[in-house]
Amino acid sequence: MFLYRKRYLREIAKFKVNCVLNWPETQYVVPFSGKMKCPFKINWDLGFVVGTIKGDGTTYIYKGRKKNGKWVSGRSYKIDLKVTDKEFASRFNKSITKVLRRKKLYSLIKMKLDNKLAKKPRFRVCASDKKFYLWFNKLGYTGIYQLLGDREFARGFIRGMVDSEGTTTKKYIRIVNKDEALLFLVKEALFSHFSIEAKKYLRIIKKIPIFMLVIYRKEYRQRFYDRIGTFKTHWEVN
Predict the structure, then answer these.
(1) Looking at the domain assignment, is residue 61 inside a domain?
(2) How far is residue 153's CA from residue 51's CA, in Å, rounded to a whole number?
(3) Residue that terminates a domain, selected from 133, 167, 191
(4) For 6-61, how does the pLDDT look when each residue is reduced to its tens digit (9 = 90+)?
């Protein structure tokens, strides 16, 4: 059961995220609601795909290409991921395939090194689906807020965020992102579903605000590894 302040109940019922984001930092957490019409099955795989795209992934419209003045390919709606971790790319490939209900996996492409400074090659997964593209780009904070009411979606979403934007060390687990609102929802989902507390920090790097969620305590880090997991290194928690 989620804890909340009664005076915020009306705003919560209307899912006004801008109101939620102005809440003071307290022990109270957002009472998520899982009631939402979604064209895809709400589960771990959908959460992992959405969390990954919010991190390292991207969506865009490919307008097609011309050859000798004639269109040889039409418009398509792309979901694209390029990462150096092959295992992570393979997991995303399996999840996006399940979400889009395809029978075969998408191609896992090993890309050439971008430049001489690059130490590792990147692996690319590129899917194409108009319905997912339109749904994802209309989702917004309110949509994610409602979807996080489902525990399995939340587990997959946080996993995708950590695998794409996270760091694990012997002393902490950290998620870095420019989107403060998104990290706020991750922070509340961690506490609401998994009883994991994370601290939020702000750093200014080259005049650009960067927000971080950091999990310090040993019991919370162990709980994270046990209940959510990550493709990052699982440091032994002593």
Answers:
(1) yes
(2) 10
(3) 133
(4) 433 444 444 444 444 444 343 334 445 555 678 899 999 999 999 999 999 999 98
pLDDT digits (tens, 9 = 90+) for 88-143: 999 999 999 999 999 899 988 888 776 655 677 889 999 999 999 999 998 888 88
Q: How many CB atoms lie within 10 A of CB 51?
A: 26
Q: Note whether residue 186 is domain-resident.
A: yes
CATH number of domain containing 111:
3.10.28.10
Which residue bears the tokens 């807020």? Answer: 145
d(CA 126, CA 80): 4
Residue 163 and residue 103 in one domain: no
Same domain? 30 vs 49: no
- Tokens 């989107």 correspond to 179
Q: Which domain holds residue 192?
A: 6-39+151-227
Same domain, 122 and 171: no
Contacts of 16 (CB under 8 A, 6+ apart): none
φ/ψ bin of 207: left (φ > 0), alpha (ψ from -120 to 50), beta (otherwise): left
Closest alpha carbon to 56 in 92, 109, 90, 87:
92
- The helix (H) or strand (E) run that includes residue 182 is helix 180-194
